Structure formats: structure tokens, C-alpha cells
């Protein structure tokens, strides 16, 4: 009789622990399986990279306006903007291709 109670307590504890795994991870989804954790991490990194790209475009624009006719400074500012746009393009391409890659390899 005592062993039956221990098994019951163990099963209830396991179910309670399992429900805790369903809590949100950085408010991007649940941590109940690998796919959702991976998707949450990818979304977080994508949003961070998007913010950084837009920030660098703005920094390049300010540098360009502050160059005041200095050709070297203006060229550096144009390069900053150009590389930020290249990064933004790479980010969107990665956002398109990564779900297909994950679906093929993780199912």
C-alpha cells in the first residue's frame, strides 16, 4: 500500500514539473520542447539584429550629415549605411531560409 502512494506522488510531481516547462521563455513562446526554445532564441536574435541594423543606418546618416564636406568622412558614412543595408538584407534572407532549414533537419 505504501509503494502505491509513493508511485502516485511521483507521478503527480512529474506532471507538475512538466506543466512548469510550459511557462514562457522571454515571452516568445513555451519551453515545452526544443523547437519552441529554438524559435524563441531565433526570434530574439532576429529582433536584436534588426534593431542594430536600423541603429547603424541612423548612425551612418548622422555621420553623413556631420561630415560637412569632408570626403573621407562622407565616404565612411556611406560605407556604414551600405554595410547596414547589406546586414539587413542578409537578416531577411536568413529569416526566409532558416525555417526551411529547421523543418528539413528538425522535422
Draw up the topology in text.
Layout: H1 2-20, H2 34-66, H3 71-106
Helix pairs in contact: 2-3
Description:
- With 107 residues, this protein is mainly alpha-helical.
- The chain has a domain at 33-106.
- The protein contains three helices and no strands.
- Helix 2 (34-66) runs antiparallel to helix 3 (71-106).
- The longest helix has 36 residues, at 71-106.
- The radius of gyration is 24 Å and the shape is elongated.
- The model is unreliable at 21-25 and 27-31 (pLDDT under 50).
Unreliable stretches, pLDDT < 50, 5 or more residues? 21-25, 27-31
What is the CA-CA span between the terminal residues? 44 Å
Helix content: over 70%
The fraction of residues in strands falls at under 5%
* Cα Rg: 24 Å
Average of pLDDT = 78
The best one-word shape is elongated
Pattern of helices and strands: HHH
How many E-type strands?
A: 0
Question: How would you sum up the major sheet?
Answer: none
Q: Helices and strands: which structural class?
A: mainly alpha
| Number of discrete helical segments | 3
